[in-house]
Amino acid sequence: MCGIIGYIGKQTTAPILLAGLRRLEYRGYDSAGIAVIERDGSLAVRRAAGKLSNLEEAVRRAPVEGIYGIGHTRWATHGRPTEANAHPHAGPNGDVVLVHNGIVENYLSLRRALEQEGHVFVTQTDTEVVAHLVEKYLQGNLEEAVSRAVARLSGVFALAVLARSDPGKIVAARSGPPVVIGVGDKEFLVASDLPALLEHTQDLFFLRDGDLAVLTPEAVHISDRAGAGVGWTTTRVAWEPAMAEKGGYRHFMLKEIYEQPQAVRDTFLGRIRPDSGELHLDEIGLSAEQLRACRQIRIVACGTSWHAALTGKILIERLARIPVEVDYGSEFRYRDPLVDEGTLVIAVSQSGETADTLAALREARQRGAVTLAICNVAGAMLTREADGSLLTHAGPEIGVASTKAFTSQVTALFLFALHLGQIHGRLSQEDSRRFGVALSRLPAQLQEVLAVAPQCEALATLLARSTDCLFLGRGVHFPIALEGALKLKEISYIHAEGYPAGEMKHGPNALIDANLPVVFLATYDPGDDASRLLYEKTVSNMQEVKAREGIVIALCNPGDEDVRQVADHTIPVPGTVELLLPILEMAPLQLLAYYTAVERGCDVDQPRNLAKSVTVE
Ligand code: AGP
Q1: CA quadruple 375, 381, 384, 387: dihedral positive or negative?
Q2: What is the mean pLDDT of residues 276-299?
Q3: CA pair distance 568, 563, nearest whole angstrom
Q4: Alpha carbon of residue 314 to chain centroid
Q5: Whose CA is nearest to atom 16 of ligand 1?
Q6: pLDDT at position 456
Q7: Residues 378, 293: Cα–Cα separation, whole Å
Q8: Residues in the ligand 1 pocket, defined by CB under 6 Å
Q9: What is the CA(612)–ligand 1 centre distance, in A?
Q10: 563-573 pLDDT, tens per residue?
Q11: Rounded to the nearest whole angstrom, what is the distance from the C-alpha of residue 402 to the centroid of ligand 1?
């Protein structure tokens, strides 16, 4: 997964490209490059392996005075992360240069066919084949050449292309990975994601699959897969550039952990009347009749969003009494799923561009299901292909490890579960009111629970010297155990597993020894008998771990003496209804993972081997 950017307008291009790449670095950071057309019409290319700072140094040493250009930051898929394999890549005569995010699955056969025509390739990448194809077809009109070239590609691609012989334009094309167009005052930009554009404009729109865009200093022209011109309208994204910056925090991830009170509030604000629990979700775009007709629900997602989906299952089954199954996007699409017109398929995704989740949504639609996207990016592919969408309002999430998007997703799923419960007549007005009040208190409680940061930082020294860690929870706390484990492993590289606490005696107890930290989710709602019962069983599991000398870290209700007598360390979590405890429990677990990763000197925002959005299979 990589980041592309292009600029055409009246400003000097290189600084704009480099600044935009800096904001796309989370998408891929093993090499980078820019290509600009100089004022004399010549083409200048600068590339560097490693972090973006190496490219910035290369441009400092050999400045370029381009008036429009393209740039790329890479997460290698084909070919090692070397300068030679860094984008932009050129055609055989250096007339065409382009940058690419995606994978050309048939690049080897295309490369062999071109080599038989005398083409010589200088890189190991799939992208170079595309540049050769475009140059092969270029006869004066770049967009025509690009259209002919991409027609031969199979796989996924987001492209930005320049040609010396057809100056004054950037051509962009999309099939799969995102391409967003920024509309400024006589300047236009193209990029893989919004943060790269926000300091220039907040008026943006995403290309659809099959679209091809021609950007000139005067205008943007869009044509569809059939070559027909199509209109476009921008969305004014209320994200200031600063929101995409670190805002004084050491890492994006820490900033985004602390943004959760606002993110959760923004996700429910205007959608529920706290004092009555009355919901206003017309924006979803699915009628009450459509939702009533759904006999079963599937939720598909990947990674952290899959953990939100597991939480959503419990919320919907508890509040609406409708059966829910949860599936990984990568599994659902190949499972020949039992989905039909009576199925509602909910796709959960922060980016709205995850290839496996997108593919699962398309599979569901092909089988007649009604589809709903829960997504954090307005206009992202997932929202454009689903029948309805319910946006989370977490703002841009830059850290690879998802935090505020997760708690916002659970908030959105809670709203939707309430909505289904009301539609199906499963919730009394008093229940709706009680849940509305509890939801309205969450932002302040989230702010309160963030005060445990110093405790989490202190515990990080213990976790940082561990090689393994277990996270245990029951019921609605089990998906949180999974998410807490994923947070720790993906940024600190410590092996961690989430488990149902009741499963320990069926095997994992063998892991327990004096070196194993075990994090328990032992909060509960004192006003809910079922919640208290699960809690009591969780405390029993805690005692089993202690009896085998395991190290117990427990998230618990404030002042819980029963837990305090068993656990080695306790972290208090404010009280709320059982179904909303997951949102409050998540913040301490995120902080534990964050400080452990910092203690271990890991690259918190750009952990090794990972990317923020996996737009390829
Ligand atoms: C979680 O911290 C990871 N960044 C990853 O598991 C992520 O949740 C997953 O790739 C899904 O991304 P999406 O929500 O954008 O679809």
Answers
A1: negative
A2: 93
A3: 9
A4: 23
A5: 349
A6: 98
A7: 27
A8: 302-305, 349-351, 354, 357, 400-402, 490, 613-614
A9: 7
A10: 999 999 999 99
A11: 6
Q: Kindly tell me if the per-residue pLDDT of 51 is higher than 90.
A: no
Question: Quick one: angle between helices 429-449 and 581-599, nearest 10?
Answer: 20
Joined together, the tokens standing for residue 541 give 């599991």
What is the pLDDT averaged over residues 580-608?
Answer: 97
Q: Decide if 566 contacts 518 (C-beta within 8 A).
A: no
Integer Cα distance of 135 and 138 in angstroms: 5
Going from the Cα of 586 to the center of ligand 1, the distance in angstroms, rounded, reads 16
Ligand 1: residue whose CA is nearest its atom 7: 303
- Cα 491 to ligand 1 centre (Å): 13
Which atom of ligand 1 approaches the CA of 405 most closely? 14
CB 257 within 8 A of CB 404: yes
- Of 306, 614, 615, 616, the one to substitute when testing ligand 1's pocket (max ligand atoms within 8 A of C-beta) is 614
Residue 244 binned pLDDT confidence (cut-offs 50, 70, 90) = low
Which atom of ligand 1 is nearest the CA belonging to 301? 16
More confident residue, 248 or 286: 286
- Do the Cβ atoms of 72 and 162 come closer than 8 Å? no
Q: What does pLDDT average to over the chain? A: 94
- pLDDT higher than 90, residue 124: no
- Which residue would you say has higher pLDDT here, 595 or 395? 595
Three state DSSP letters for 127-179: HHHHHHHHHHHCCCCHHHHHHHHHCCCCEEEEEEEEECCCCCCEEEEEECCCC
Structure tokens at 255: 């900033």
- Is residue 267 a contact partner of residue 411, using CB atoms and an 8 Å limit? yes
Question: Whose C-alpha lies nearest to ligand 1, atom 5?
Answer: 303
Unique residue bearing structure tokens 């930082």: 457
Q: How far apart are CA 451 and CA 291, in angstroms?
A: 40
**Residue 164 near residue 95, CB atoms below 8 Å:** yes
User: Which positions are catalytic?
Assistant: 2, 612
The pLDDT tens digits for 210-219 are 999 999 999 9
Query: 103 by DSSP, 3-state: which?
Result: strand
The full length of the chain comes to: 617
Q: What is the pTM of this model?
A: 0.77
Distance 426 CA to ligand 1 centre (A): 32
